[in-house]
């Protein structure tokens, strides 16, 4: 495995386990869930051709006094939007030498985050709150979202500077706050391994991470589901490092 991809003798492919957070996003059951999903999808509308037309069956469900009926047109629009959220140009292959941005959020339901590079998504992350986390104060939930995101994306972030964005203003000053409890001190010790700057963003600008934190039945992360697999495979054939890895795999096919 390398940067969320599987390298084998056949070439480079995306790890299937890393694309389920969006592809298995459950169909909304009410207007609240429609707004949450459309908040995420709408954030990337500039990348989706005819976004308003594609999303129309779903957005119409938000009209006042309209009965909520999820029909075949809604399902088709939902599938189309999920497909585009999990493919280029919204998602991109990470550049190991480029800089990253991490955006996180938390709700009373779960933790969410998105890893960006040059304003393109590298990975989505979301998970449901654990039982003991249900009692956390909002400040600790937001901090837990940061810790979780950095744990998941450690292989991208450790050892290089990156930007961290949160809509919880207090976290901007977390390293200078007195009277921390044992859990907070433990988390700060973990965060001290990383080189990052924290910046505050308004909640309305944090729609993607917010939606991921509120998604029903949150359970997994997602990285690139590429529509240009053939191009990646073709490029890998001319890459010297990849050819060395491929040769080693061919020579020792049973070596894990």
What Rg do the Cα atoms give? 20 Å
Q: Would you count the extended β strands for me?
A: 8
Following the backbone from N to C, one meets helices and strands in this order, namely: EEHHHHEEEHHEHEHEHH
Within CATH, the superfamily of the largest domain carries the name Ribonuclease H-like superfamily/Ribonuclease H
Distance between the termini: 11 Å
The share of residues in extended strands comes to 15-25%
Tell me what the structure shows:
This protein is 38% helix and 18% strand. The protein has helices spanning 20-23, 31-43, 51-59, 72-85, 138-152, 154-157, 182-191, 207-214, 229-236, 240-251, and strands at 5-8, 11-14, 100-106, 110-117, 120-128, 162-166, 196-200, 221-223. The strands form 2 sheets. It has a 6-stranded mixed sheet. Strands 1-2 form a two-stranded antiparallel ribbon. Helix 7 links the parallel strand 6 and strand 7 (196-200). The chain is globular. Keywords: Endonuclease, Hydrolase, Nuclease, Nucleotidyltransferase, RNA-directed DNA polymerase, Transferase. This is Reverse transcriptase RNase H-like domain-containing protein. InterPro entries: DNA/RNA_pol_sf, Retrovirus_Pol_polyprotein, Rev_trsase/Diguanyl_cyclase, RT_RNaseH. It holds the Pfam family RT_RNaseH.
Protein topology:
Layout: E1 5-8, E2 11-14, H1 20-23, H2 31-43, H3 51-59, H4 72-85, E3 100-106, E4 110-117, E5 120-128, H5 138-152, H6 154-157, E6 162-166, H7 182-191, E7 196-200, H8 207-214, E8 221-223, H9 229-236, H10 240-251
Parallel strand pairs: 3-6, 6-7
Antiparallel strand pairs: 1-2, 3-4, 4-5, 5-8
Helix pairs in contact: 2-3, 2-8, 3-4, 5-7
């Amino acid at each position: 495995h390398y940067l969320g991809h599987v390298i084998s003798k056949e070439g480079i492919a995306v790890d299937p386990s890393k694309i389920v957070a969006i592809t298995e996003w459950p169909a909304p059951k009410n207007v609240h869930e429609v707004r949450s999903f459309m908040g995420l999808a709408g954030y990337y509308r500039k990348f989706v051709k005819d976004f308003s037309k594609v999303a129309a069956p779903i957005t119409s469900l938000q009209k006042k006094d309209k009965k909520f009926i999820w029909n075949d047109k809604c399902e088709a629009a939902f599938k189309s939007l999920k497909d585009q959220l999990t493919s280029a140009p919204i998602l991109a292959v990470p550049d190991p030498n480029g800089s990253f941005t991490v955006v996180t959020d938390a709700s009373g339901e779960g933790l969410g985050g998105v890893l960006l590079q040059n304003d393109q998504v590298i990975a989505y992350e979301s998970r449901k709150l654990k039982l003991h986390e249900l009692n956390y104060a909002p400040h600790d939930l937001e901090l837990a979202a940061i810790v979780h995101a950095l744990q998941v994306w450690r292989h991208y972030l450790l050892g290089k500077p990156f930007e961290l964005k949160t809509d919880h203003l207090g976290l901007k000053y977390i390293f200078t706050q007195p009277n921390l409890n044992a859990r907070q001190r433990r988390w700060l010790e973990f965060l001290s391994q990383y080189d990052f700057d924290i910046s505050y963003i308004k909640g309305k600008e944090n729609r993607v991470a917010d939606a991921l934190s509120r998604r029903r039945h949150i359970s997994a992360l997602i990285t690139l589901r590429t529509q240009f697999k053939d191009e990646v495979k073709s490029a890998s054939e001319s890459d010297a490092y990849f050819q060395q890895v491929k040769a080693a795999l061919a020579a020792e096919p049973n070596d894990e």
